[in-house]
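Incident log, entry 3
Record: Integral membrane protein (117 residues)
Problem: checksum mismatch between cached and fresh output.
Input:
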Amino acid sequence: MDVLINVFVALHIIGIASLLGGFLTQMKAMGAGTARFSPAMLHGALTMLVTGVALVGLNQADDQTVNNIKIGIKLAVLVVVLGLVYVKRDEERVDKGVFAAVGGLTTANIFIATLWT
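Fresh output:
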């Protein structure tokens, strides 16, 4: 079971790398007002959602403790990010505030995951 959990953790990290990497590559364009959400950002957010739900289920099946409040907050933040990216994915230009919010919420989600013990 540990190997399976570690595989899903790796996939979860790949998802966050795709989402945050897509944001970071568009930061210069955000300053110019021409930033847009790339498909990698949408796919990264979806990967995070699927692997995160799987991780919670696998950890509970393995009788490990799961902090449901932390997971709930992370899920809420991810749903907001996913909603913003999904709704604005086809727009040629995304407002600076919306784009910055996605980057900020993604970063906040990383800090929640790593610092909340």
